[in-house]
Design goal:
The protein has 260 residues and is mainly alpha-helical. The protein contains 14 helices and no strands.
Length: 260
Amino acid sequence: MKKAAAKSAAAENAAPRKRATKAASAKAEAAGAADARAQSALSWLKRHSSKATRDGMARYGLPSDRALGVTMADMLALAKRLGRDHALAAALWDTGVYEARMVASMVDDPAQVTVAQMDRWCKDFDNWGLCDTVCFKLFDRAPHAWAKVTQWSGKREEFVRRAAFALLWGLTVHDKQAADAKYIEGLRLIERAAGDERNFVKKAVNMALRATGKRNRALNAAAVATAKRLADASNITAQWVGKDALRELTSPAVTRRLVA
């Protein structure tokens, strides 16, 4: 009896280890498959790159030192071929290549995006193209999007702060269920950051203000009030943000659209 009991206990103790080993093996196999797909995708991008496209990136303020020179149309085509794949997105991001990271934002599954991933990727942003694409294609559909708008808006790093307002801008378009109260809070964050004179921050703040004011009539009124306060501010950058937003938010075209 004692031998049987000991044997049974040993088997029970071994079972969790076997399961853990099997799970680790499966995880490693999946990671290997993702890496292989990422390398295949990278090869595809290289074949569809051109020096002319790469050289042209400078005209749009995009650094090309880690870029191949692939058009947005080709990146979108590749993402469509690859389909949604969270593990592949991580592997593509880890290549550090501009176009691979752009495609990563297009194939990742928003539901699987974690807070840690958002912070990690955000720290890698070094240009407006990657920042805005990740925010518009992925982060604004992730479960933690609103929390990151608030958190990142208070950060000092240029592209982290830009990400906050690019994300808010994206949410005005893609979050159809959000209550107006969330955007009212967004306007408070906009007003707080409107004096940031850095080009890539002030433009994102301005676009977030304009996008919020085009969501519905109530938010238009709130955004116009915010823009008027900024236009009357003593800070020159805040004045620009407010006056530029007012021109669009009070235009006949926006008024007609909101009334319709």
